[in-house]
Amino acid sequence: SQLTFRNGNKRIDFVLIWETKPTDKKYESKKEIRESFERNLVKEGLQLEWDIQEGRHLQCTMVHAPLELLTRYAGILKIRMPIEEEAEVTSNREMWDMMDDAVLKVLQPFQLDPLRVPKIKKKFTYPYDSTKTYLLLNRKLYFLFSHATRSRITDYVLRRKEYFKPLGLKTEYGIKRLLADSVYNAAYPLHEGSWKENSRMSMRKLLYDNWANWRSWYKVQPLNYIRTYFGEKIGLYFAWLGYYTYFLIFPSFVGFIVFVYGIFSMGDDVVSKESCDERNNFTMCPLCNKLCAYWSLDQICSSIRAMHLFDNGATVFFAIFMSFWATIYLEMWKREQAGIQFLWDLRNFEEEEEPPRPEYFTRKAKSKYVKYNKTTKKEEPYFPFWRRQIPVHCASFSAVLFLVAVAIACVVAIVFYRISIITSIYMMNDELLYQNAAIVVSITAACINLVVIFILNFFYTKLAILLTEWECFRTQSEYDNSLTFKLYVLQFVNYYSSLFYIAFIKGRLGSQENYLTVYSGSQRQEECQGSCLTELCIQLAIIFVGKQLIQNTLIEIYLPYVFVWLKKKLCTSREERQLMKHYKPWEKDYALEDVGSMGLFNEYLEMMIQFGFVTLFVAAFPLAPFFALINNIIELRSDANKFVTQLRRDVPIRTATIGIWYDILYGLSKFSILTNALIIAFTSSFIQRQLYTHVYSTSGSLDGFVNNSLSFFNVSDMPENVAPLEVLIKPRYNGTVFCRYQDYREPPWSSRKYKYSAQHWNMVAAQFIFVLIFENLIVLLVGLIAYIIPDVPYKLHQQMRQETILTHELVLETELKRAKGSGGEVLSKGEIDDIKTKVSEKMNNIIKKVVVVGADGEGHGEPTGKPARHVGDLKENEGFQHALD
């Protein structure tokens, strides 16, 4: 593909696309603005070439950044340039190192072919200084600027270059404003070559073959190549997603073991045996008013057996494990991120000053409020704080609260659906339906809830964007943070509200003699048959798995291919399709989708919702991490494929962290400790069983637990509007005097009839004590773990010190020789190489001293003792040159 100017020796670093529409009323004005902007670009030092063809709808301005401009802005932006290959630190091999080699042999099938994806070595770097070019690794400066760096510098110039606006007789700034005003239709760097099978090898083709191709789903990611091609922001997203996916292997395995344990221990469960034994003859009270008859507990035997799969002793262990896992994962990610920052020269990264958003200027220009600007000495429009900004933000906040109320109202509506349907099922004379009524209603309600969630999400996204646009933030980061807050709050309520209802509200309002009723008292609140944990598991599984199948598999993978196929078949003729084969690179890229300002926003948001499912309610669904792992393997490759084949190449953006998303992960990990403690204490029967075994059981076992957990109710005390119709009562229940219900209340023959019993208050006390101990103990332990695990690995500290010392020594030695031996002249390559050799030898001795100084607690305070080997330590593999050994 032709990626250069016509002379073949000037690389195209950016393209600006614009339309030829003489019928447009503003065509001449836009043309003048475009010419003004491009003249200023040439004055700045950029070189332009035009691809204009008569009769073509779109035209192109190609931009090339020459070396003079690159070096000038490299100094302004303090871009770091390589000065030396990574120096080796001599050390004795340890047992852990040999174990690493053994593990690497086992993991060899997952590695990338080093011949196809060569390893990229870490280079020591130094902020570019035009007076110290003799330090650079390669004297040919042109080859030290990567394609991503060239695009970033070009974009920096485009975003800040002014232009003259003839209609308003004023000066405006930046390509973003020109795009907003439709002076240009698009501005982007070109993809490097084609990704298709028969195309010549390029960076894009390499990424497709070894990363974005579905055949490479089990291979590790070439992160250095991703960073080189797409920039640090996208590289960090895929590094985080890959690390998160890798970490899900551990809870997936443990959760699967917990699930298998529930299956194999089902036959030994005393509660299931007692509930399913017809000889116990537990006659249960009606589950609805008048239209429901008495029933036997053994009728829901299958539901009680299924409940044991998730409500057993291993569930508590798994909840504790997941609390530790979330904390360890976040701490290890900080270590991994520190290594990435070192490898990608992001340690001393400073955010560039953001230019204002074009939309901000547009809305500000329409403001009716003006004031005198002392700097420009002109009357200018502005947004008054009290009269405009405060009312707008208050109205926006109120709108978000209203949307939250809408989500909660939808949950309430589904609750009414559940009440109506379960009453209808109980009216049917069908034994199979009667026995599985709770499961049928849970499944159908969860499916309806999933559909409602997708519908609400569609409107929530549109409304959140409208509200954030209305607030009119000055910079893109302020805009993104506000939108992130709104959308995450709305989606949190939308996805999780039904789960909170089942876990902590359902069946807990009212009592047997005084139920909470709806529909003018004709129907009453629904109850949990056996345990709410089973229904919580069903709800969680359907919403979680269903969301992943619909959104990730159908919407993100197959739907784009359907749209592309329809576009080719319906929107283009055969002649046009033939012409498309001969499109120029900028035309092919223009046909791709624009990444947009929200870029990775939806990808991160989707993973935050998943992380909430994996951590907040994992006690109810131990298989959640396993399904998340499967989803993320697919998600990672589908996102990679999308960025390589379906999206235009985005401007490489430097960033050192994943930003606000880490704070959301941290908050979810802490909140999950509380939710899992509450689920174990109040939703599962774990505390009830433990209290009965150790306090009320005469044998110290669960024998008699079911009988103990069911209270008595005298059917003669049942209100007339609740008592079942006689025609519905089966012969086996004729003459029933007492029916049973799940609660701990005094029997009808007690002086405190139907009041809470002492066992109930003991159980409540035990539940709160458990939550208190669980919450504080886990918080204390995870805090201790976070304190013990340093944010930066020990060996990485050594490498950082090594880089700093090498850089300083190299500069000092070179400057000294220049001053004494060369009289200030530029040193030859041989002289520079001699200095580098000398510094490398000297540096190893210094490094040893640095380690010793750190061990006695003085000097720079490096961690002491032997370095701990853990999953966070960086290893060198498949094109991702790491910092250790």
UniProtKB/TrEMBL annotation:
Biased composition (Basic and acidic residues): 870-885
Domain Anoctamin dimerisation: 5-223
GO MF, any single term: chloride channel activity
Keyword terms: Cell membrane, Glycoprotein, Membrane, Transmembrane, Transmembrane helix
Domain Anoctamin transmembrane, residue spans: 226-803
Pfam name, any one: Anoct_dimer
InterPro entries linked to this entry: Anoct_dimer, Anoctamin, Anoctamin_TM
Localization per Swiss-Prot or TrEMBL: Cell membrane; Membrane
Region annotation Disordered: where it falls in the sequence: 857-885
Chain ranges passing through the membrane: 243-264, 313-330, 394-417, 437-460, 611-634, 761-789
Protein's GO biological process: chloride transmembrane transport
One GO CC term, this protein: plasma membrane
Membrane topology: Multi-pass membrane protein
Alphabetized PANTHER family for the sequence: ANOCTAMIN
Family, as annotated: Belongs to the anoctamin family.
Descriptive protein name: Anoctamin
Species of provenance: Helobdella robusta
